[in-house]
Every structure is written in structure tokens, then in C-alpha cells.
Amino acid sequence: MKHKIIETSISLFGQHGFKETSIQDIVDQLGLTKGTFYYYFKNKEEILVQIHEQFIDDLLTKQKDIIDSSRPVKQRLYDLVTMMIRNIRTSVNSAMIFFREMRHLSEEKLSYVRKKRDLFQQNIEELIREGIEKDEFKKELRADMVSYMILGITNWSYFWYEPDGEVPEGQLADMYTTILLQGMEQRR
Known about the structure:
The chain is mainly α. It is 76% helix and 0% strand.
């Protein structure tokens, strides 16, 4: 039941927003009582925290698999961008909630989520730094700024990209990574 409450909350928060969705809306959607809700959760923020944790933990796991592979840095960066774009299809509501509703978390919970979000960014930064050290990317690049650029490009896609639309996700990932890698490659 806890999982169903979370999934329903993801759908309702995605459609209407966190603040605009009441606990009553959630239990009505599931045909439950508020007592059942409170058996699993203290309040709506607790659900929001779990949605944030699930989303970032899933991304960190996928990121680790890509980064820890023995593939060349350029291929790992390509795979990472592709994974983030593909994640739109599978987790669009969770992603929108993650980016849009973070402001509704208490400072304590926000601090916890930020640490994981920062780790995701730092892992990208380290991958870029590795590419610079291996002479695959330009020496003058700032790995931190490039990592933020990648996150900006991919994260903003959650708000406008339609996976079932005119441009397939693989093609969008190819466009992003082609532009990115051509701009970063060390010219020989």
C-alpha cells in the first residue's frame, strides 16, 4: 500500500503540484481513508522526501554503473547524457517533482537531498576531469562548469521534451552529446 500511495502522489503532484494536492486528494484517488495514509506517512512532506530520494538514488545507481565501466571517457559521458534523457520517459513526473517541488522541503530534508544531488554533479565533474587528464578534452575546460552545463541541458529537458514526439530520445541524446563532445575535444 505504501508504494501505491507514493505512485499516486507522484501522479497527482506531477499533474497538479505538491501544494495544490491534498492528502484527501491522494486517499480519494486510491479509495482509502486518511487513517490508512497516516499509518504509512506522517505528512505530505514525508512522501515528497521519499519521491526525491527514490529519484536521485535511481539516478546515482545508473550513473555509477556508467562511470565505473571501463569504456573510454567520451563513451561514458555519452552514455550518461543518454541515460538522463531516457530517464524522462520512465520518470517524467518524479523528475518534475524533483526539480519543481524541492522548495517545499524543510531545510533539514532539503540539505539531505542536496547532498545526493551534489554527489551526482560531482561525479560528472570527476568524469570530465578524467577526460581532461587523459588528454581527451581541452585542458582549459573547467570540469565544474561543464558538469553544470550538462545538468542544465538535460534537466531542463524534463520540462519541454516529449519522448513520444517528433524527435526520438536517442536522437536528442545524440544531438546533445555531439555538440558537447565536439566542443570539448582536444584538437590534435
